[in-house]
Amino acid sequence: MNEELGLQESFWKRRIVAPIAAQLRQGITPEKLALTVALGTVLSLFPILGTTMLLCALAAFLLKLNQPVIQLLNWICYPLQLALLIPFYRAGEWLGAPHLSLSIPQLVERFQAGAGQFVRDFGLIALGAVGIWCLLAPPFAAALYLILRTPLRTLAARTARARKTGATGS
User: pTM of the prediction?
Assistant: First the structure.
C-alpha cells in the first residue's frame, strides 16, 4: 500500500507538479497558468468531437496562453469529454432538441450512411449540447480559475525561494 501511495505521489510530482513548477520558473504568472488550466479544461469538454484542439489553440493564441499546457490538458481531459458527450446531448434536449436514441453503433451506422444525413439527424441534438455547454462552461471555468490561483501562487513562491537558495527540492 505504501509503495502504491509512493508511486502515485511520485507520478503526481513528476507529471503534474514538476511541469507546472517549470512553467512558473520560466516566468509564466500563477494567474496566467490558472487561466490556461481553467480554459484548457473547459474547452476540452466541448461536446463536438474533433473540435477541441482547435478551440484550445485559438484560445491560447488569442489570450497569449501556454500552448503546450493547454494542449496537454486537452489530451488529458479527452476521456472525460467522451464520458460527458451523452449527458450533454441528453441535457440539450431540454433546450428543444428532439429525443433520439443515442448508441454508438447507431451513430456509426448513420454516419457511414452519409455525413449529410448524419448532420440532419443529429445536428439539433449537438446544437442543444453546445447550448448546455455554453451555459455551464463560464461558471465552471471561473470557479476552476479561482480555485487554482492560490495553490499556484504558493507553488510560485516556493519555486522562487528554492531558486534563490539554490535548492532543488520540491
Answer: 0.79
